[in-house]
Structures are given as structure tokens and as C-alpha cells.
Specification:
The chain has helices spanning 17-28, 62-72, 93-113, 139-157, 180-188, 208-223, 243-254, 291-303, and strands at 8-12, 32-37, 54-57, 76-79, 118-124, 161-167, 169-171, 194-196, 202-203, 205-207, 230-235, 241-242, 260-262. By secondary structure, the protein is α/β, with parallel strands linked by helices. Strand 4, helix 3 (93-113) and strand 5 form a beta-alpha-beta unit. The radius of gyration is 20 Å and the shape is globular. The structure holds NADP nicotinamide-adenine-dinucleotide phosphate (NAP).
């Protein structure tokens, strides 16, 4: 087994929220880190580590990816690239399939052709609506499942071994995604009330530092030869909280009421009221960042105060 200092990682989705955190951690831990980016990728989230990583621009073709894989010859691929769209429209189909299925298949094909046998893949708890074995909340979740079906072919027919980490909601510093906490930040600066759903849906929130730890542990399992085929694990907090309670906690830590009209709009169709709770957790992993500490961290990022 290679020592960590000599380990080579190829990361996809490194410009994304979790990918940027994972990349920083790999650099800190002494890995030789290679990133797979696109010609138009916004590299801002990687500014702090840019000098310490090598990036490879993918032209979208299978041949292009094969050449990168051959040149990098990684010990492990961390595959986080994906296009998330909660409620898709017809115009989104091509780019969703391209990002979530075509690109992921090109990646697997390149890996097996280059003898790269360790993959940490990223799934979603939304593959399990109402905690069913498979029931996609939306088309995005269906594309994640479709890739796992394809991955099965590669692991059954080659030495490729994979761990698929099924993520729930994530949060932490440096989050530029148009999700809940960005919305709450905007709300804190306005008086106009925002109509939200009744807020009784449970949110399973995991801090990004804990998510990164799960990726590292999954890689370790692959290095130790402990993985059979493609193994799925849930990266869950184990203690979901209602949206309303979460916003109340955030608002109290912020020291400001947020102008929200609860029940001002209906739940989404196929809203996840109770997150998937039947998935196995990664052996040896558990979330360590308490919600209150994590929320204070993102509040401090905006206000500059961490002494509340
Ligand atoms: N964050 C969550 O709460 C959550 C929950 C469940 C599952 N997940 C999964 O976790 C992973 C990371 O999520 P995230 O929230 O950190 O992602 P994110 O911030 O939305 O970033 C997505 C990343 O994917 C890259 N990408 C998209 N299409 C690509 C393509 N065709 N080729 C190459 N790169 C492509 C983007 O690169 P560009 O810079 O080029 O656009 C970007 O780096 C994803 O697989 C996501 O589905 C996340």
C-alpha cells in the first residue's frame, strides 16, 4: 500500500462546494492532488490551493478523459462532479445527462482502461424517497441511480472497486450554492417577508468537514482492500431537524428574527418530509461537528463575529 505522502488523487467537481473542501484537505494531508476541470470552470473556490495542485481541462470527450487518466495514473478517483437541479425543465435534460451520466461513464471507462481501480463516487439520499430501496425524488436522483447501474457493470467485469457515499444536506463555510443558508443570509438583510412551506420537513444536515472525512475514510477502505464491488453508504447526521426548528436555531444564533411567512407556499411535489434512514453508515465514521458550532461558523463568515 502506498504511503499517504505518495498517494495520487484525481478529483472531479473540485470547484464545487464539497470538492473544494476535499481538495484543500487532500493538499493539507500531503496528497499529490490532480483536478479535472472544464474549460469554463470558475476556479475561484480553489484560489488558496491553486499553486499546490495540478489541473487538467477536460474537453468533454472520452478520448480526452482517457489521456488525462493515463497521464495522472491516480491511486484513487474522487468523483464529485454533478449537476443538481431540484425541479428540472425540458431544457435541462441534455446537460443533466451529460454531467451525471455521460461524464461519469467516461470516467469509469477511462479508469478501467488505465488500470485505475479505486473510485469514491457520490450519490444522494434522494435515491430513496420515503426510505424505499429505490425511489428517486427527482430526475437528478434518477441520474445518480442510473450511474450506479452502469458502475455495477464496471465493478462486475473488472477489478474496479467503488464506494458510493450517499449525501444528505451539507453546509459549512465557502458555500456559494443557491440553497437554504444563502437564502437566510439574504433574508437577514431585508424586511420583506418571504413565503416558505409550513417547514415541518426534516432536514438531515452534515457539516462539510465531516463529509470530507467520509470521503477520506472511503478511500482508506479501498486502499485496505475492504470493498466488494460498489458499496453504498449513507453520510447522515443521524439526527434530522425540522426546517422550522433549524431556521429558529440559526436566527437565535444570529440574534435577529428572519421575515418568513411559514405556510405561505405549499410543499414541493415529492417533498422529502422524513429523510432516508435505512442506509448503512460508513464503518468508523460519525459526524463530529455539532450543529450549533457549525451554524456559528457560517454566521461568523458573514458577520465577522464568532464570539456569540
Ligand atoms: N451538497 C449536498 O448537499 C449534496 C447532497 C447530496 C448529494 N450531493 C452530491 O455531492 C457532490 C458534490 O456536491 P456539491 O454540492 O459540492 O456540488 P456543486 O457545488 O454543485 O458543484 C458541482 C461540481 O460539478 C462539476 N461539474 C458539473 N458538471 C460537470 C461536467 N460535465 N464535467 C466536469 N465537471 C462537472 C462542477 O464544475 P464546473 O465548475 O465546471 O461547473 C462543480 O465543480 C455532487 O455529486 C452532488 O450530487 C451533494
Amino acid at each position: 500500500m502506498s504511503s499517504i505522502a505518495s498517494r495520487v488523487a484525481l478529483v472531479t467537481g473540485a470547484t464545487g462546494f464539497i470538492g473544494a473542501h476535499l481538495t484543500s484537505r487532500l493538499v493539507r494531508d500531503g496528497w499529490d492532488v490532480h483536478l479535472l476541470v472544464r474549460p469554463g470552470s470558475d476556479l475561484t473556490p480553489l484560489a488558496e490551493v491553486w499553486e499546490q495542485v495540478r489541473s487538467h481541462s477536460h474537453d468533454g470527450t472520452t478520448g480526452g478523459l482517457l489521456s488525462i487518466m493515463e497521464a495522472v495514473a491516480p491511486d484513487v478517483v474522487f468523483h464529485l462532479a454533478s449537476l443538481f437541479i431540484a425541479e428540472h425543465r425540458p431544457a435541462d435534460i441534455e446537460r443533466m445527462i451529460e454531467s451525471n451520466l455521460l461524464f461519469a461513464t467516461q470516467l469509469s471507462e477511462s479508469m478501467v482502461n488505465c488500470g485505475v481501480w479505486r473510485l469514491v463516487n457520490t450519490g444522494t439520499s434522494w435515491q430513496h424517497y420515503e426510505s424505499r430501496e429505490y425511489s428517486p425524488v427527482n430526475l437528478y436522483a434518477a441520474t445518480k441511480q442510473a450511474f450506479e447501474a452502469i458502475l455495477r457493470y464496471y465493478v462486475e467485469s473488472t477489478q474496479l472497486r467503488a464506494v458510493t457515499l450517499k449525501l444528505f444536506d451539507t453546509y459549512g463555510p465557502g458555500d456559494r450554492r443557491p440553497k437554504l443558508f444563502r437564502l437566510l443570509r439574504q433574508l437577514a438583510a431585508q424586511s420583506e417577508p418571504l413565503a416558505m412551506s409550513p417547514g415541518e420537513q426534516l432536514i438531515d444536515l452534515v457539516h462539510v468537514d465531516d463529509v470530507v472525512e467520509a470521503f477520506l475514510l472511503a478511500a482508506e477502505m479501498l486502499f485496505n482492500g475492504e470493498v466488494d464491488g460498489n458499496e453504498d453508504y449513507a453520510v447522515t447526521s443521524g439526527s434530522p431537524i425540522s426546517l422550522k426548528a433549524l431556521v429558529a436555531q440559526y436566527s437565535s444564533l444570529l440574534g435577529r428574527d428572519l421575515p418568513i411567512t411559514w405556510g405561505g407556499r405549499p410543499y414541493r411535489s415529492r417533498e422529502v418530509m422524513v429523510p432516508w434512514h435505512l442506509g448503512p453508515t460508513l464503518p468508523g465514521w460519525q459526524p463530529r461537528v455539532p450543529l450549533g458550532d457549525g451554524l456559528l461558523g457560517i454566521i461568523a463568515e458573514v458577520t465577522g463575529h464568532s464570539d456569540r
